[in-house]
Description:
Blueprint: H1 2-6, H2 28-38, E1 42-48, E2 52-58, E3 86-90, H3 94-106, E4 110-114, H4 117-127, E5 133-137, H5 146-156, E6 163-167, H6 172-181, E7 184-187, H7 192-215
Amino acid sequence: LEEQQEIFTEFYQMANVERDRRKGLGLGLATVQRTAKLLAHDISVESQLGNGSTFSVTVEQAENIVRLFSQPLVAADPVAVSDSFLVAVIDDEETIREGLQHLLELWGYRVVSAADGEDSLAQLQGLGRAPDAIVSDYRLRDGQTGIEAIGTIHSAYHPAIPAIIVTGDIDKDRLTELNISGFQVLHKPAPPAKLRAFLRSVQARNKGRAAKEMAD
């Protein structure tokens, strides 16, 4: 029973004392529990040694189903998305990287995704252009950080390219390093609305700069 409670602790892994990144970071269940609490849902686990575990989330039963829209929903977006707006996504976890890429593409953005700064830069150079924005995880493979990965792209193109770092770190030294970097930070579980707001603000600023240059 004690172990059952510990598995919901951030970075806790029962069978990964060597901290092999291929086995994850130990953030999955902590993220699930935090999300469940935000939604006021109870989460529980039952397990049998050698047989496996069952996780359950308890939610309130809806009394009825209400059809909210009779016509297709069209989102009111004051800043139209253009597929020419390029986002560089950097994350060494393939599933997370692919999921974020899929989400951004659903929003209408063009995406270059990579596991580290060097791979991202190589892909960008293959396209012959700089990204309009960079979204990077903080902890990357081989000890690289998101700060370093962003720096790789900034050094090749321009240090003013907007960037945001996503992290699940709670270590005081790491948070201090992120604060000193000056980059915007999203803490896991990262709300999609905040990520979208960041990208929209960048796009709006780019359009404003383009309009000013045309006027001049």
